[in-house]
C-alpha cells in the first residue's frame, strides 16, 4: 500500500471535484485515494452483485466498517437463478426473484456502482469500466458467475439463444421460455439439453424438467418433457427419478449421454437439436450450453485451461494474480458445487480473509456449507447438504455429515422440504440484499 | 428435563476435557456461525417463514438443540445432516455467537381473534415456563415472543404428533390435547408479542 504524497492527493482530490459534476459520487469515491475515502484500512472492489459478490461486499463491511467497499454490477437489478424454475412451472412471478441494491448502499455503507468492468490491471491494481471510468483497489473480488461455451454447439450463439433460450441466467430468457411453454399446443414436446460437468447448479436442469412437467400436467397433459443429457448420471438422480415417476409418470423422460443425449449442433429456426446419433425436433427447446467462468475472468486471465479460475481454497485469492480473489461459480473450489449457497459461503470466507489481510493478520481457518433444495412438485421438495473444511489446501466434505434427503421420507417430510426451499430463498436473498 | 440437562452438562465436560484434541486450525465463532445465515438470515435474524429466528436465543438452549440434532435425538429434515459437520465445541461456539446477537422479532401481521384465543391458552397452561408471554428465556424455555408463526406452528404440530414423547414431557402432554386451530392460535399469539 503506497503512501500518497501531498501533491498526488491534491491531484486526485481535484480530479474528483471536477468529475463530480459529470460522474456519480460513488464512482468518484471509488477512484479516490483511501486516505480521503473515509476508509483508512484499504479499498476493496467487488465485481458482480450476485450470490457471491453481494455477500462478500456486505460481510467485509459487517466485519470492519473502516474498509472502503465498492460493489460494481452491470445491471441495475439482480434476478435470482435459484427458484427461477418455479417461474417456468407457473407458481412464481419473476418479480419475486428481482432485487435492487438500495439497502446495501444505504444501510450497509457500500458504494454501489452500475458499470460493466471490461478490463483488470492487476499490476496497477485498477479496473476499467465500459463507462470509461477507472477504479483503483487494494483488494479485488471477482464474482462473475458463468459464461457460455457456445462454440461447443454448432449453430448456437447468443442470438440463437434468444429464440431457443438457455434461461441459465435468470431474467428475460426465463420469461421467454415461460411464454413459449404457454404458447405450446397440448401434445407438444419440450426438450431440455443438460450440459456436461462442471456447470452452474447441478440439480437445476432436473428440477426444471419437473417444474415444466408440473405445468404440463395441469394445462397440457398430453405433452412431454425430455431431458437430453451430456452426462450418464446427475445430481440427486434417485430422488428426481422417484419424484418424476410419482407425479408425472412417463411424461418426463431422461436420455443419458451414452444413450444419445449428447447434443453437438442445433438449428434454432426449426428448433432441432442434433445429437451424435439422432436429431430431436421439439415444440419448445431449452438448450443449456457447456459453461466456463464469467467473461471478465476470461479477459483478465484469471481462468486456466479448464475455463475456470484456480484459487487458494483457504482465501479464494487467485493463483494467477495477487490481490485478486475469485468466488462463486467461476472458481475452482475443491468439492463444492457451483451453487448459490456455495457462492454465499465462499463470499464469507473470502470476506474474512480480506478483512484479516487489510488488518495485517493471517487468514483464519475457513468453514463452508452448501445446502441445495429442489422442488419437484409444489409440495414435494428434496435437498442435499454438505459441510466442508480445508484439508491440505483443498476443500473437502466433513465425513459423516451432509448427504441427501432419504429416499423413503414421508410425504409430510417432502412437503416441509418444499416449504424450507422457499424459506431458504427468503433468507439467502435477505442475506444478500438487506 | 433433568435428564436432558444432566446430559448437556456431561457433554460440556467432555468438550472441556477434549479441548486439547482440537485440530490446529481453530475456526472462529463468526466463521462458523456465518454459514448458518444462508438459511437463518444474517446474524440469525430470519426473514421467514419456516426458518426460526435464532439470533438472540439463549445460549444453553441453542447448544442443547444443536447437540441433539447432531446425535439424532431430535428429529429434523436437514439440521441433523448439518450439525454432524461440526465438533461439539464448534456447535457450542455457534450457539454462543447466535446468543450474543440482538433478537429481531418477525414483522408479520397477526389476526387479533386468533391472538386472543392463543393468549387464553397461554395464560392457562404455558405461562409458568414461558414467562412474560414467551419473552423470558430460562430453564430451557426458548424465546417464543416475536418468532415466525409458521415456525412455531411447525414445531407445535411436530410436538403434537409426538405426544408424550415430545420433550419436555409436560409440554408434550399439554400440546397433544390441543386442536390444529388452537395450535395455530398459539403461534399467532406468540408472533404478536414482539
Identify the notable features of this structure and list them briefly.
heterodimer, A: 434 residues, FAD/NAD(P)-binding domain, 13 helices, 25 strands, 32% helix, disordered N terminus, B: 194 residues, Cytochrome Bc1 Complex, Chain D, domain 2, 2 domains
Provide the helix percentage of chain B. Answer: 55-70%
CATH class label of the largest domain in chain B: Mainly Alpha
**Uncertain spans of chain B:** 13-24
Strand content of chain B: under 5%
Number of strands of chain B: 0
**Helix percentage range of chain A:** 25-40%
The CATH architecture assignment of the largest domain in chain A turns out to be: 3-Layer(bba) Sandwich
- Secondary-structure content class of chain B: mainly alpha
Strand order of the largest sheet of chain A: 5-2-1-9-20
Q: What is the overall silhouette of chain A?
A: globular
> Low-confidence parts of chain A, pLDDT < 50 over ≥5 residues?
1-38
H/I helix tally of chain A? 13
Provide the fold topology:
The complex is a heterodimer of chains A (434) and B (194).
Chain A: H1 6-20, H2 25-30, E1 43-47, H3 53-63, E2 68-73, E3 78-79, H4 85-89, E4 98-99, H5 102-106, E5 111-114, E6 117-121, E7 126-129, E8 134-136, E9 139-142, E10 146-148, H6 160-163, H7 172-183, E11 189-194, H8 204-219, E12 224-229, H9 237-248, E13 252-255, H10 257-261, E14 263-267, E15 272-275, E16 279-281, E17 284-287, E18 291-293, H11 295-299, E19 309-310, E20 324-326, E21 331-332, H12 340-358, E22 368-377, E23 380-391, E24 394-397, E25 403-404, H13 411-433
Parallel strand pairs in A: 1-2, 1-9, 2-5, 9-20, 11-12, 11-17, 12-13, 19-21
Antiparallel strand pairs in A: 3-4, 6-7, 7-8, 10-18, 14-15, 15-16, 22-23, 23-24, 23-25
Helix pairs in contact in A: 3-12, 8-9
Chain B: H1 2-17, H2 29-33, H3 37-40, H4 59-71, H5 79-83, H6 88-99, H7 112-125, H8 131-134, H9 149-162, H10 169-175, H11 180-192
Notes on the structure:
- Chain A is α/β, with parallel strands linked by helices and 434 residues long.
- Helix content of chain A is 32%, strand content 25%.
- Chain A has helices spanning 6-20, 25-30, 53-63, 85-89, 102-106, 160-163, 172-183, 204-219, 237-248, 257-261, 295-299, 340-358, 411-433; strands at residues 43-47, 68-73, 78-79, 98-99, 111-114, 117-121, 126-129, 134-136, 139-142, 146-148, 189-194, 224-229, 252-255, 263-267, 272-275, 279-281, 284-287, 291-293, 309-310, 324-326, 331-332, 368-377, 380-391, 394-397, 403-404.
- In chain A, strands 5-2-1-9-20 form a five-stranded parallel β-sheet. Chain A has a four-stranded parallel β-sheet with strand order 13-12-11-17. In chain A, strands 22, 23, 24 and 25 form a four-stranded antiparallel β-sheet that branches.
- In chain A, a hairpin with a 3-residue loop joins strand 15 (272-275) and strand 16.
- In chain A, helix 3 packs parallel to helix 12 (340-358) and helix 8 (204-219) packs parallel to helix 9 (237-248).
- The radius of gyration of chain A is 23 Å and the shape is globular.
- In chain A, 53% of the residues are buried.
- Residues 1-38 of chain A have low confidence and may be disordered.
- With 194 residues, chain B is an all-alpha fold.
- Chain B contains eleven helices and no strands.
- In chain B, helix 9 (149-162) runs antiparallel to helix 11 (180-192).
- The chains are: A alpha/beta (434), B mainly alpha (194).
- At the A-B interface, helix 3, helix 12, strand 22, strand 23 and helix 13 of A face helix 2, helix 3 and helix 5 of B.
